[in-house]
Write a structure and sequence with these properties.
The chain has 505 residues and is an alpha+beta fold. The strands form seven sheets. It has a seven-stranded mixed sheet with strand order 3-9-10-16-13-12-11. A five-stranded mixed sheet has the order 20-19-21-22-23, sandwiched between helices. It has a three-stranded antiparallel sheet with strand order 5-4-6. Bound molecules: adenosine-5'-triphosphate (ATP). The site of adenosine-5'-triphosphate (ATP) has 16 residues, from strand 10, strand 13, strand 16 and helix 13.
Length: 505
């Protein structure tokens, strides 16, 4: 496909056209950064959830699940620090009246300089051909070195300002870098202000004496406040984990890039409670383990990278992101954080309840340390979906659109297609659907020529098309066509269940 921007447009259009993702409230012109998952999207999303749940909960004896409520006691968000510090710095352009995140403007500016470095590399690559050594080039070429120096200087100044919460300094940096509003093209910026990302609502029938509640901005706190409940009722021994999948809400200032940044989204989080002192060992364990989970989907290693945080949150003693190369560049997909004993201690302090663990092996009580793995379900969907969507040129010169999803995640595992709509073939095909549907999502399709039906299934990622023809009636065999190779093989109906099982797990 021509370029990344075009690919991204194609991803959004394909997701809508085939019923994966629709803009929310579309007939009312939509609602910013809120999306609905359609008939195929919900299947893919559920399969991703299941893949995560199985590998985290089912495969780990010492990890159990939880489904805590979205509404929680308002003091929880005081204790967690979200009321005071879950802010983004925002800035408005007075001419376009558009609102931006000050940090994003600065990061985008750095990314543009990085693009220039990449362009220089591409040019040099063309010039030197095979002999091109990127590492050597970026450490010796004067122009690249100058770009890199600019990035380093901006990054250092930016990190210092963010750490010091220096809003005036951020504005000054934006002015010094000459950043203009992409809409108006001017530098007519307001001051930078802090904006809390939590959505507030009221509980109770009488508004006046009701309490302000927040829609949770992360699922993690539901796990922390249930730490003792789960530990005691499940007789859990440290180290152990609690996993949860659920909705989270953030009033993002700038919502863009489709389902990458939404105001209502889903997280899959796991908090792993460990002995103090062992946390960095476990941090490294989960860092590797989580990348393995991604790679098991068959997406190449070079699409992922770690981004270790130089600037740590005050409660963390190690943090890394797993970044994925989305069509708009490498961006965070999952965070792995060593959160120390911060959260449990804060909830102890704010609730007055002791949140400790008696370790029978040490014969002492302590507040466990926590390693968190936190991944966005929607971002994972986008990563998998955008990587899977491809246009292939076939040997005869024609093209086909294929959604090359891992078979395990495909919305439909198979489609059953009678070759023609007569001679008892539809009835036979329905029998096969009935046989398979106890185990798998399968689709029946009899409309249009067989070639068109194959293409439709390719476009939604169905790994197998099962074709029923006259021989099927005679000898009980069918043709199975594979999505990726388009190869066909003949097999008895009796083998279908085992065949699909072997190829989708
Ligand atoms: P970002 O810097 O991109 O805003 P974050 O560092 O605030 O993300 P975390 O608080 O670490 O994100 O949340 C954990 C995960 O939840 C992220 O890695 C991401 O996959 C997902 N996530 C966070 N915010 C959103 C959002 N607005 N829409 C979709 N997914 C999100």
């Amino acid at each position: 496909m021509a370029n990344q921007e075009e690919l991204f447009k194609k991803v959004v259009a394909h997701a809508k056209e085939y019923g994966f993702i629709f803009p929310s409230s579309e007939i009312y012109d939509g609602l910013g950064a809120v999306y609905d998952y359609g008939q195929l999207g919900v299947e893919l999303k559920n399969n991703i959830k299941q893949y995560w749940w199985r590998s985290m909960v089912q495969f780990h004896e010492n990890i159990v699940g939880l489904d805590s409520a979205i509404f929680m006691h308002p003091r929880i968000w005081k204790a967690s620090g979200h009321v005071d510090a879950f802010n983004d710095p925002l800035i408005d352009n007075r001419d376009s009246k558009k609102r931006y995140r000050a940090d994003v403007l600065i990061e985008d500016h750095m990314a543009k300089i990085e693009d220039k470095i990449n362009k220089e590399c591409e040019k040099a690559h063309k010039r030197f051909g095979e002999a091109f050594d990127r590492q050597q080039f970026v450490t010796t070429n004067a122009r690249v070195l100058d770009y890199q120096r600019q990035i380093d200087e901006i990054r250092a100044r930016y990190a210092e300002l963010m750490n010091a919460n220096d809003l005036d300094g951020l504005k000054q940096l934006i002015l010094d870098l000459g950043i203009v509003c992409p809409i108006s093209g001017t530098r007519n910026w307001t001051d930078v202000r802090q904006f809390n990302l939590m959505f507030a609502t009221k509980m109770g029938s009488v508004i006046d004496d009701s309490d302000t509640l927040y829609l949770r901005p992360e699922t993690a706190q539901g796990i922390f406040v249930n730490f003792l409940n789960v530990q005691k009722s499940g007789r859990m021994k440290i180290p152990f984990g609690i996993a949860q999948i659920g909705k989270a809400f953030r009033n993002e200032i700038v919502a863009r890039q489709f389902i990458f940044r939404m105001r209502e989204f889903e997280q899959m989080e796991m908090q792993f409670f460990v002995r103090p002192g062992s946390e960095l060992e476990w941090f490294n364990y989960w860092k590797e383990e989580r990348l393995r989970w991604h790679l098991a989907l068959g997406i190449p290693r070079e699409k992922y990278r770690y981004h270790d945080h130089e600037k740590l949150a005050h409660y963390a003693n190690a943090a890394t992101d797993i970044e994925f190369e989305f069509p708009f560049g490498f961006k965070e997909l999952e965070g792995i954080h060593s959160r120390t004993d911060f959260d449990l201690k804060r909830h102890s302090e704010f609730s007055g309840k002791k949140l400790q663990y008696f370790d029978p092996d040490l014969n002492e009580s302590y507040t466990p340390y926590v390693i968190e793995t936190s991944i966005g379900l929607d971002r994972t969907f986008l990563a998998i979906f955008s990587h899977a969507l491809m246009e292939e040129t076939l040997e005869d010169g024609s093209t086909r659109t294929v959604l090359n999803l891992p078979p395990m995640l495909a919305p439909y595992k198979a489609a059953v297609l009678p070759l023609v709509k007569k001679d008892g073939l539809p009835e036979k095909a329905r029998e096969i659907v009935d046989l398979l549907k106890n185990h798998y999502m399968v689709q029946y399709d009899e409309k249009d020529a067989i070639g068109r039906r194959y293409r439709r299934q390719d476009a939604i990622g169905t790994p197998f098309c099962i074709t029923v023809d006259n021989d099927t009636l005679a000898d009980g065999s069918v043709t199975v066509r594979r999505r990726d190779t388009m190869q066909q093989e003949r097999m008895p109906i009796d083998n279908l269940l085992m065949y699909i099982h072997n190829n989708t797990h």
